[in-house]
Amino acid sequence: MDKKTFIGFIFNESIPKSEELVNQLKSLLSNDYCIWTSPGDQINIKSTVLSDTKIVVTAGGDGTILKASRICSRYGIPILGINLGRVGFMTELRPEEASKQIFTYLNRNSIKFDSRLMLQCEIFDNSKSKPIQIIDALNDVVISRGSDPKLLDIKTKIDSADMHSYRADGLIISSPTGTTGYSLAAGGPIIAPDSQVMLLQPLAAHMNFSKSLVIAEKSILEISLISKQPASLIIDGIKETDFSNNHLIRITKSPNTTVFLRKDSMNNFYATLTNKLLS
């Protein structure tokens, strides 16, 4: 085996068993691969190492996968998720399965690649023509009023057409993968993860249009605040910045995708969904 080929491990350090599991798997693989490890909150791996990484194994829950996806999607590295969290919609293996099955996923003979659409969020300051920040999201982009008791007035445009102004606690823009997350809790629909669409889901809209809206993958969504009070811009569960009426965000389909390694057919999604929701 070429020792320049890396296997990466990203773990949730707040779960004690995650680092223990990673150490067990490292001992199985270290003779055949170079290994790197990182806590999910501090991923700082050299680009030369990432370019030679075959897969990234996550030990945690869906939150750990969301952190890993920001790195893996840029380098085309598939993710194998081991569920040490609560629900684990995106994970593939239980901890007790990992040691026996990891070689199956490395050999890839009967393994399927599950590619997921990501969102690209460009953040603009009204005084500048170029985005001040560009961030990809696997799950969702959320504008939230946070602890401020006042409702937000949120202006939306789809493909340059004025669509609607929401008066609400916030707004969720979700990928299909993200529809089993926050938007589901907000009353949104579940969309099959291999779909190529985006979902617009208001949060507790006040006496106006409160329905979910499914948007074509090629659409350009622009969002700004009419309200004077600042909101929070949260991407895949991480607060990125305060969002005010001096900002605009543009959301499109990202050129990057997150790829998962799967043993079973994608048709298994619906059985998994039922089991996860009822567990």
Q: Which regions contain 5 or more consecutive residues with pLDDT less than 50?
A: none
Number of helices: 6
What does the main sheet amount to? 6 strands, antiparallel
Sequence of strands across the biggest β-sheet: 6-5-16-13-8-9
Any idea what the radius of gyration is?
Answer: 20 Å
Question: Hey, roughly how much beta strand do the residues contain?
Answer: 35-45%
- The helix-and-strand class reads alpha+beta
The whole-number mean of residue pLDDT values reads 91
Query: Order of SSEs, N→C?
Result: EHEHEHEHEEEEEEHEEEEEEH
Shape: elongated
Number of strands: 16
The CA-CA distance between the termini, in Å, is 41 Å
What is the helical fraction, as a range of percent? 10-25%
Describe the structure in your own words.
There is one protein chain. The protein has a six-stranded antiparallel sheet with strand order 6-5-16-13-8-9. The longest helix is centred in the N-terminal third of the chain and has 14 residues. Strand 3, helix 3 and strand 4 form a beta-alpha-beta unit. The model has no long low-confidence stretch (mean pLDDT 91). The radius of gyration is 20 Å and the shape is elongated. With 279 residues, it is an alpha+beta fold. Helix 1 packs parallel to helix 4. 22% of the residues lie in helices and 40% in strands.
